[in-house]
Amino acid sequence: MELDRKIMSAGKSSLVVSLPKEWMQLNELKKGDTVSFSIQRDRSLVISPSNFKKSAPKEITLSINENDEEILISQKILGAFLNGYTGIMLTSENIFTVPQTKAIRNMAGRLYMRVMEADSKCVYIQNLMDESKASLEQAIQRMHMISRSMCEGAINALKNGDIALAKSVFSLDDDVDHFAFFILRILRNAAQDPHLAKEIHVDPVDCMDHQTLVYRMEYAADYAADIARHLVMLNGTHQKIPEEVLALMISGGTEAVDLYVKAVEAFFAKDVCAAVEIMKHEPRMEKFEVEIASKSFTGPQKSAELVCAICSIRDNIKRISHCAFSIAEISVNRAFKMANP
């Protein structure tokens, strides 16, 4: 709702604007109370009650049908979580099936939510974390540490044939997802709530760039996990990637991971020059992809399983590099946006 107010004169040097009565009543303000002013990047002015009270926790009820599959239930819970609901009530006209109950509890665990009430037809889960006390940058940095270790571990496992390392890399994927869900929830809430944004020291305008960064970090971890999965699979069938192809994969993978790490660093440093330098490597990474593809189908005949694994690993290396280029691009855009008044 937009309301127009005239700027009026109060004395020789003061200008005043009246506050809407409805807004005063909504925030339980009266004559003599104080308000806070905050100038935004677009030069607009945000007025807030000095004794601002946190909004009441949001709750939602989700109906689960008898035939709803586990993936649908998980996505319903995730959607409610990301949209800021603190309490989620899941109800069914019939008794929850065993797979449905497992899906609810598994998703609650992944989102660090706690089951507060439960019976055969109803489960209530609640988020007990206070987003206003979270450190956004620290959470993203920790997520990056795991994502980076997965990417580096996948390439080292590829280089050294270290299956134990590959299994370790694959096992870390859930940890990255946990961070991603938590951070995305904070960013979505902060984008809509200036008070939360102020408490966690993030500009609401900057939330979208951070959201893109988090998605790219999650994707990079997924691609590393998929490389590790294929290495474990090939080891189980006693098949090896030809040395010539392997050497190209190691070179391309090492460079892709290095670009990814530098891109995240450039994002936080707001380093335009470093970001642009990263983007210049795109033709080189495309060349690696073509060379790997050409070597994959030459030489002795390979099994379909080995060819598929080589193609998948090649694609995952390419996608890690694309994450780096995407992060570098938003780093440049963000730096120029930050430069504007």
Structural account:
With 341 residues, the chain is an alpha+beta fold. The protein has 3 domains: 8-49, Pemi-like Protein 1, Chain: D, CATH 2.10.260; 58-131, Translation Initiation Factor IF3; 133-339, Methane Monooxygenase Hydroxylase, Chain G, domain 1 (Up-down Bundle). The protein contains 12 helices and 8 strands. The protein has a 4-stranded mixed beta sheet with strand order 5-6-8-7, with helices on one face. The longest helix has 36 residues, at 304-339.
Reconstruct the topology from this structure.
Blueprint: E1 8-9, E2 15-16, H1 21-26, E3 35-39, E4 45-49, E5 58-63, H2 70-82, E6 85-91, H3 98-110, E7 113-118, E8 122-127, H4 136-160, H5 163-171, H6 173-192, H7 194-199, H8 207-236, H9 243-269, H10 272-279, H11 282-296, H12 304-339
Parallel strand pairs: 5-6
Antiparallel strand pairs: 1-2, 3-4, 6-8, 7-8
Helix pairs in contact: 2-3, 4-5, 4-6, 4-8, 4-9, 5-8, 6-8, 8-12, 9-10, 9-11, 9-12, 10-12, 11-12
